[in-house]
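User: Hi! I'm a student and our assignment asks us to look at how structure tokens line up with a sequence. Could you show me two examples?

Assistant: Happy to help. In each example below, the sequence comes first and the structure tokens follow. Example one:
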Amino acid sequence: MAVKLTKNEQKKQKDALKQFQRYLPTLLLKKQQLQMVIRQIETKLAGYKAEQEALVSGVQDWISVFGENSAFPEERQLDKLVKTDKVIRSEGNIAGVTIPVFEDLTFRDVRYRVEDYPLWVDRAVVLLKESARITALMRTLEIQIELLGKELRTTSQRVNLFEKVKIPETKENIRRIGIYIGDQQTAAVVRGKIAKRKLAAKGGE
């Protein structure tokens, strides 16, 4: 974009440069904070995934009895005994980004007659509920990563814009205006000297 080669424009460009240089450290700090928090959430997510895997592997010694599940009538199979109701989330704020925070997962009250099932079903219901809770928690963490990742991309774009475009462009504009004003001042001095010499020459005639 063409800029006016004037002192007013020079001041405007210098003010803009100060503003860019003042905002840039804040943007860099926000970028670092977002990167750090995303890594922390990813570590938590990996921990919950491992916990869920351990939950499943911990019952491998009796998991074979799940084969009995297919022997139950359809309306009495395990998936009918565990029904989620709703995920309860509150709101948090990280680096100006509103994120969901997992609070709890509620289940519908499904009653069943204990005598209709073998003993292992009670334990299976508890584990299925815990697994569902961890799944809901992990999904909340994934949403956090998505939202923070989006903000990180926007912040990174702004950092790049300031570092690679706005600041260099403004500095170049200031340099060009400075050169032009300097040239104009030099030309004015030269013209002044020429005018004096002409006046001196006329006075000597």
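Example two works the same way, sequence first and then tokens:
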Amino acid sequence: MQDAGFVKNAFAGIASRYVLANHVLSLGIDVLWRQLTARKVAEKQPRTILDLATGSGDLVETLQSACIGAQILGADFSVPMMREAQKKAFNQLIAADGMNLPFHDGSFDALTVAFGLRNMASWPGALVEMRRVLKPQGFLFVLDFSLPSLPVIRPAYLFYLKNIMPRIAGWITGQRKAYEYLCSSVERFPSGSDMEALILSCGFKSVKTRHLSFGIASLYVASVE
């Protein structure tokens, strides 16, 4: 179980500088990850999309450009983060907890969650809820950090994750403790085959993984039967 209360307060504290911190810490590569995700969503031609843990609206902004004509709704339990999304002129937003979504069963053709599942109180509980609100033949897209498998990259990345990233993020946002927690969560978060098994155990029919930037991030695309 994740500490949902701490996460909520942490994001409230870093909301205004969250996007800047992400771009600096990833050297801007996170923009490319979101663009790829949006292209993969567009390939499925969804008419309705729920962007869960929408935060400051980075993925929503990319989805709007890629999925012309789709109805896109952003949901997050952090109102301060969604205010940042509103600054990008995106107002189709709802305050909602990923553990208990206020939608009927089978409401959406596609559901995206970028860097959000990792911070939810229960990963299986959140995935089951995502499965519930997806239509038959719907698709789930999970974009999140993972750990590189290459032995020459993994140790260096872990050192950066534990020692460098929280310091830089703390300097940018003034909230080092928040990033110490967020960075440590990456190491605990399942990835690769472990994430595939978790997604399948929550009622999805199939799942495919695409490793990004040597496995620093991964995109999981799951389908509903």
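Here is something you could point out in your write-up. The first strand starts at residue 48 and ends at 52.
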